[in-house]
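Continuing from the previous page of notes. For each protein in this section, the sequence appears first, followed by its structure tokens. Read the first protein now.
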Amino acid sequence: MLDQMGFKNVFDKVYASAHLGVQKPDVQFFADYLGYRDKVWSEDSSLAEWYDMTPSAQIYTAELRRAMEQYGTDKLMALANASVGRLRSMMQDLGIDSSLVSPFTDSTSWFLWHAAKERHLAANPNAQAAMPNANKYNPHDPLVLLDSFASTDERIAAAKAIEAMEFSQLGWELYRLSSPHIDRGPEKPPAPIDIATVLQSGSSASENLRRLVNEQPKREPGKDTTLSTFKLTYLGQQAYENRNRPEVAYPE
């Protein structure tokens, strides 16, 4: 299931050893909020198998449950829906046709998954230190943005964490749509977009981003996956900040 998303659970062994004794949360809660059931899957048996076989899914489910108890489900889902909406607008700004957008990106599950992950890692520095490319990340709890007692600095850090999450998901979409290494079926059609077409003409970022989308993904035998999160974040941010912008006609 996760292979279809382009994600590989490279952290599961770390989590399994670092978090023994974690009480297993309700599978139904996972399916409702983290299982992409709103846009992708509806089979409870598949979601239950994903949950049972993925220690990180169990940990993030527990983390998200605590967050919902702390801030309220409605507030947290409003934050998730706002982020999904912003990402949709970002893709429109890049000129990407809505028919090309993955249903995973239309789901609130990607936001909730990454928010729970960031929240968990921010509170557990030992788990963060054990992650691959740990020096590339400085996690902050993005859900602090919902805390009315948080300091200004904490809220700024939370807002930046959400922005990074959005850029990462945007990068995932751009890599999925423009990389020659993605399996698009037996007929092997070309990538739907050329990364250069979303950038300003002559942008200095063009060469770097083209090199990045041509980079081999992390691989599992026989399956295509994706780039590391920090590379996806860079891809999404650089593409958006250097995007083609319509010329503004000023009155004479």
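Done with the first. The second protein uses the same format. Note its length before scrolling.
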Amino acid sequence: MLDIVIFDNFVKLVNYFKTKEMKTTVLKLVMILVISLNISIFTGCFNSGESIPYYSVSEDFADYCWFEAGTSWAYQNDSTLAIDTVLIYEVDDTKRFNPTGVDFNYQAVEMYTLANNLGFSKLEITAGDYQPEPGDMSSLLRLYKEGGSYQLIFSPQYDLGDEIDLGDEVGRYSNIEIIENFELLGNIYTDVYHTRIVIEVGANIEYNFWIAKNFGIIKSTTLENGESISISLKSANILPHS
């Protein structure tokens, strides 16, 4: 509509010129201006879409929990000594759009797993709502179970000792400590995060996870209605993200 109005006004102006050559020259100038206007509008719209920020998972966070397909862990039940294995068989790295609040895109990594008796179906990493500086870790790691329920198990952005209420279903999350050297079943792991999740609404459950750099989950405990289950990493075949 704007193009038509501009064109009509310039046609009226052209009629004031007497010679055919002058009219042709002016008409050419009009067409150039109209085309330039369209290009400017299109470019402005394109740049507007591209201006939405994209936040990715930092390498520091990836070192703790981003692994390639073929990675496997063998966990020992600390009571029965039975061994259960977890295998990543597929990894999807995608871009998602934040549906609420400030507009931004963020990276999401889904690691689909096969597990004997542990009931794990997927590990999911999502980038935080800002681009972290080197050494910073703003991303989240969730553990999905068969049936679709999930648990936030690793979010190092929170200060040690703080308890973060994430809602009735997810519970209260805490970073308990960072252990420089952690010995487990004869192996030494470094820079281990100990995290805890407490759910009291509709259940009485406490989860604890120990997550080691370059190995992921090396130990977990579940205390539910007075019954405790503890598993520890016996061995692993790690294929790190590159």
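What the second structure shows: Residues 54-237 form one domain. The chain is about 20% helix and 45% strand. We return to this in next week's lecture.
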